[in-house]
Amino acid sequence: IVVAILSGLAIWKPVQLQELTWLMGGFDAARVVHFFAMAGIVGFFVVHILLVLIVPKTLPPMIVGGAVPDAEATP
Prior knowledge:
Layout: H1 2-12, H2 18-23, H3 27-54, H4 59-64
Helix pairs in contact: 1-3
């Protein structure tokens, strides 16, 4: 995420942030870095959403932070 933000800044304001753009390898290289950083973030979300869709029982424990007690198991 930090790389995506920094490369985004480098391609948004390349004149004002010349040093950052230079560190990214220039404007064109910063665009490539930004593309792959954003593709990685989107891929991360897509994979995790697919995992939740495949095994939906895992979502409530992730949200509440532990195992959800069974309503039938409690007296």
